[in-house]
Design goal:
- By secondary structure, the chain is an alpha+beta fold.
- It contains four helices and 13 strands.
- Strand 4 and strand 5 form a beta hairpin.
Length: 211
């Protein structure tokens, strides 16, 4: 009976072959950006989810119809070639697509003729979605062009603003543009004054470029 598969490696338990795993771990996380404010607590911006990660230990035993050395060699190729594979457990697809980032194996029992009988292999995977990557590339290109045009506009016209206590670029951008995410426009127009976009001081006179 098939438990699942990764690439062309099938995890299964039957009378003729047992290739299984243990200690399956799936982790997910998000990325946050901190915007410091003078005299106030920081304001946090959610930047998006990070790639999910998976790790598990594959049990390899020649007594159960498995060739440990061949399986390990195949896993090494996955890691070193950058091949992207699908992971399915219990008939359900896990995540989207995965890249194998690391493999460590323990060779437990080797016969006198050099045949590997028992071993375990710890495989580490990281989520990889080529469709999303393409989208991100397009968004980045479009955003870069947009920022460039806005920077050109800022050299022609802009508003002068004096920083007061409690200000941060995020809040100033909200005030002038309606969105804190546009704080980079202000930062790029005032790099001669602002050394760190997270730190501005009362009395600084900033140019607010046209959006």
């Amino acid at each position: 009976m098939a438990i699942g598969y990764f690439g062309d490696i099938t995890f299964q338990t039957s009378d003729k072959k047992i290739l299984s795993f243990r200690d399956f771990k799936l982790s997910a996380s998000g990325s946050w950006g901190e915007h410091k404010r003078n005299g106030q607590k920081s304001e946090w911006e959610f930047l998006g989810p990070n790639a999910e990660k998976v790790s598990f230990v594959i049990m390899l035993d020649a007594n159960f119809g498995v060739n440990p050395r061949k399986v390990i060699e195949k896993l090494i190729k996955y890691v070193e070639s950058g091949k992207i594979n699908t992971l399915v457990i219990g008939g359900t697809k896990v995540g989207t697509k995965w890249r194998a980032t690391a493999l460590s194996s323990t060779w437990g029992h080797i016969m006198s003729n050099g045949e590997l009988v028992k071993a375990s292999a710890t495989l580490t995977l990281e989520e990889y979605d080529t469709q999303n990557d393409t989208t991100h590339t397009k968004v980045f290109t479009s955003t870069s062009a947009s920022v460039s045009k806005k920077q050109e506009a800022s050299s022609v016209s802009g508003t002068v603003y004096t920083v007061v206590k409690g200000d941060c670029l995020w809040n100033i951008a909200k005030k002038f543009y309606g969105s804190g995410t546009k704080y980079t426009l202000i930062y790029n127009a005032n790099k001669g004054i602002i050394k760190n976009p997270s730190l501005i001081y009362p009395g600084q006179v900033l140019t607010i470029p046209a959006a």
